[in-house]
Amino acid sequence: MPTDPISLYIEHRGPLVDYATRIVGSRAQAEDVVQEAWLRLRQAHNQSAVLEPVAYLYRVVRNLAIDTRRRLAREFGRTSPDEMAAALPAEAPSAEQSAAAKDELRLVLEALAALPERTRIAVRMNRIEGRTLQEVADHLDLSVTRTFRLVAEGVAHCDRWRVRGRRRVG
Q1: Does the CA dihedral 120-121-127-132 come out positive or negative?
Q2: Same domain, 59 and 96
Q3: pTM score above 0.70
Q4: Mean pLDDT over all residues of the chain?
Q5: What is the mean pLDDT of residues 81-102?
Q6: What angle do CA 160, 149, 17 make, to 5 degrees?
Q7: Which of 46, 22, 45 is closest to 34 using CA atoms?
Q8: How many domains does the chain have?
Q9: Residues 6+ apart with CB under 8 A from 102
Q10: CA 7, CA 35: separation in Å to the nearest integer?
Q11: Would you state the pLDDT for residue 77?
């Protein structure tokens, strides 16, 4: 059984997402929970030896999923469907929201353009097109582990780029 965080993540990702989905009720939210759990496992693994990494992953996913469910319940409350619909933002964004979104998009596109081609393709296919890591790995003729690293590096690069861009603008 692998003990490094990436191999554990790849091996158990599907069942962990299914597990988190049952708790939070949303596959998209479950994906976020599992990714956060992996980051925490990686951090814990770097700081000290985790004796039972799979059990640790499941425990962290469970705790994060419960926290996510509670947060969503607080945000949306126990309201009627009509009240929820009324609370939704207007379909058309305000001029300020539109300008902010355009700035954000510009920064992300700049960040993507600055990435090496293979990393840019991996991020685009996984994060924008919604392709699985396996599909991206097959397309790029890479291992899933290397593909995961490319996506993680690309997303981190985009985040750093956006933060720098906001400091210059704001």
Answers
A1: negative
A2: no
A3: no
A4: 81
A5: 63
A6: 100
A7: 22
A8: 2
A9: none
A10: 13
A11: 62
Q: Please, are residues 29 and 72 in contact by the beta-carbon 8 Å criterion?
A: yes
Tell me if 144 is assigned to some domain.
yes
Q: Is residue 69 part of a domain?
A: yes
Burial class (CB in 10 A: 0-12, 13-18, 19+), 50: middle
Amino acid letter, residue 95: A
Nearest to 17 by CA among 32, 5, 7: 32
Burial readout 5-28 (b: 16 or more C-beta within 10 A, e: otherwise) = bbebbbebbeebbebbbebbeeee
Does 123 map to a domain? Answer: yes
Q: Would you tell me how many other CB atoms lie within 10 Å of the CB of residue 116?
A: 12
Rounded CA separation 76/79 (Å): 7
Name the residue among 60, 162, 160 with its Cα closest to residue 101.
Answer: 162
Is pLDDT at 164 greater than 60 in this prediction?
A: yes
Burial category of 57 from C-beta neighbours within 10 Å (exposed 0-12, middle 13-18, buried 19 and up):
buried
Instruction: Check if the beta carbon of residue 105 is closer than 8 Å to that of residue 97.
Output: no
Average pLDDT for residues 73-93, to the nearest whole number?
57
For 165, the domain range is: 91-169
Do 56 and 95 have their domain in common?
no
